[in-house]
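Journal club prep — side note

Before the paper discussion, L.F. wants everyone to see what a predicted structure for a comparable chain looks like in token form. Sequence:
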Amino acid sequence: MQREIRYDNLAGMMAELSARGITKVVLAGTREKRLRRVEKELHSIENVRSVEVLAYHDSTIYKCLVEDGDLDSLRELFEANGFSATFRNRNIT
């Protein structure tokens, strides 16, 4: 059975991944403008910028969402701590 573990901060996630011997992560980034419904008849265009850090091991997905995260600095952070980081684009358009 597959399960999912979510983290509120990167330090906790990196400590858990290191303890389990997981060395590969994926940085799934979103940077685009999206239409959001504000009220019943009112919409607004908003900038969406986030990075979701993902790892997978033994049928468990490890996730941490970083709002307004910078992909390059996150990649450097993970690589400096011994992880291999891959980027994936999650833009809709």
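L.F.'s comment for the group: Residues 14 and 78 are 8 Å apart (CA to CA). Keep this in mind when we get to the figures.
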